[in-house]
Amino acid sequence: VLSKRRRDPTQLLQILREVQEQVGYIPPPALTAIAAALKLPRARVEGVAGFYSFLHLQPVGKYRVLFSDNATDRLLGNLDLLGTMCQKLWVEQGKVSEDGLVSVDVTSCTGMCDQGPALLVNGRPITRLTHQRVNEICELIRSRRPLSLWPQEYFRVEDNIRRKDDLLNTVLEPGAALAAAMALGPEAWLGEVQKSSLRGRGGAGFTTGVKWEACRNAPGEERVIVCNADEGEPGTFKDRVLLTSYPDHVFEGMTLAAYATGARQGFLYLRGEYRYLLEPLEAALQRRREAGLLGQGIRGQAGFDFDIEIHLGAGAYVCGEETALIESLEGKRGTPRIRPPFPVIKGYLGRPTVVNNVETLAKTVLIALEGAERFAAVGTAQSTGTKLLSISGDCAFPGIYEYPFGVSIEQILEDCGATDVQAVQVGGASGTCLASYEFHRGIAYEDVPTAGSFMIFDTSRDLFEVARNFVHFFAHESCGFCTPCRVGTSLLQNFMDKLATGHGAKYDLADIEWINRLLKAASHCGLGLAAANPVVETLIKFRPAYERRLQSLDFAPAFDLDQSLAEARRMTGRDDADAHLSSVEAHR
Ligand code: SF4
Predict the structure, then answer these.
(1) Are 218 and 344 in contact (CB under 8 A)?
(2) How far is the CA of 52 from the centre of ligand 1 (A)?
(3) Residues 510-564: tens digit of each pLDDT
(4) Domain-located, residue 253
(5) Do 468 and 455 sit in the same domain of this protein?
(6) Which of 106, 153, 180, 286 has CB 3.0 to 4.6 Å from 69, enough for a Cys bridge?
(7) Which residues contact ligand 1 via a Cβ below 6 A?
(8) Residues 6+ apart with CB under 8 A from 114
(9) Does the structure's ipTM exceed the value 0.85?
(10) Which of residues 461, 483, 514 is at a domain's end?
(11) 479, 492, 518: which to mutate for ligand 1, most atoms within 8 A of CB?
(12) Domains in the chain, number
């Protein structure tokens, strides 16, 4: 691994990942060897390896099975299937089987919600799981059959494109958009992007032209373009489809950004769950190099040099935040940075850096081909163009839908065959939960913004359990850097579990609201700020789902204190009869 990679600290995460692909985990001598080769403290190498949930410092099963555990996977019975697998393989969830053959556990949303329930086996996705398929997988594991000999249709991932509009209908001749932009020159091309009012499709909605201009004007010699393909928001999978079937749109968009800003270096940061896309994307890059669309003197223009490297993530939702992503690209733990300075001024290795979402970059191709005016004529005043939605949950036709901005929730529900809908979670776990009286509202930055996730829940679903799933997700994904988020998400999770087990009291609801205020006031990044949203919103809009779980008592403890102390009493041999809760209550 070391011989194939640059001896440079920015390669650390990629080296760790590749060692694990070969050995199955990262053994201590590998940590030492990597630290020596990269001239890094061993503690730093171990700290990075320990941060990412797909990296392991201890042996894991020869077959590592991870069931996707988004709220929509739950609707499709993923836990039931997981139980069946554990039973058949004689393994406890989260443990390695005694013979070291297999481990089975859950992981955050794998981006396959349109074809769930899904799992990853040694990093490769298997979708459309049924009990029969789980039984077949158990047989293959028991017979120790290598993954290369498993039926290849297991690994088929569908695009499920259901509605095309401007972007998905555009067939791109590689280089055509670049030719159009180069005919204008970099300043005029940047002007076109600004005129289009294109806004970032990753959720925040920042104006792309403004971002590019800030990077272009920032002091420094080297500039960088980063495509954020760390599509980790639960329920989002539209970037998966763009990367699968429209890679030239994405890479051409990155090159268009480089042309406008003067960047020479580009990265595509691909989420670890999409590892299976690495080889096809590398092949697409190679084709573009051979066609003179990447590398030195692009399209024959001296001085226009730009190339793209793909970096893989390793299972950390927080790396979707642009500064955490840059830290990860630099081979570090994915901890969000303090801003300012913003990445456009000081990003990757201190260089001015543009970080754009996959869909945003693909959209710039349309602007180059058809012009800013044509682009801005679609959508609404503050949200120009179209938006890709990843639709999943209770509907007949889950998949990818492209709509002009402004489309109403009602229209989308009708198109995807959803009936009897109780709620729609728009924008993923950190987004907004809309009740039926809000379905007249529209998808747009000025109304209901979204990075693309659109999860539907019909009236048979328990919104409390949906919110509990999201809260567990945030507690798992908190990077632990700041105390309010690290502790707050964990407390929130405990409160929700307490309510779920019937130990909740009305004061717990007040405490949840207090934790929400704390998270909003003191969290360092968007994860902590949004972590309580799913609970707070469902508490307001679907309060009966909470109230029916409350005890009539003012307070009910979440655990049995006497029982918790029993082991300590046994070990110390000290058991004062007056120090039991029952005797304290008797004295009252
Ligand atoms: Fe990390 Fe949470 Fe703090 Fe963000 S808010 S930096 S995820 S601990």
Answers:
(1) yes
(2) 15
(3) 899 999 999 999 999 999 999 999 999 999 999 999 988 886 556 566 667 777 7
(4) yes
(5) no
(6) 106
(7) 318, 336, 478-482, 485-486, 523-525, 527-528
(8) 158, 160, 237, 390, 391, 392, 398, 399, 400
(9) yes
(10) 461
(11) 479
(12) 5
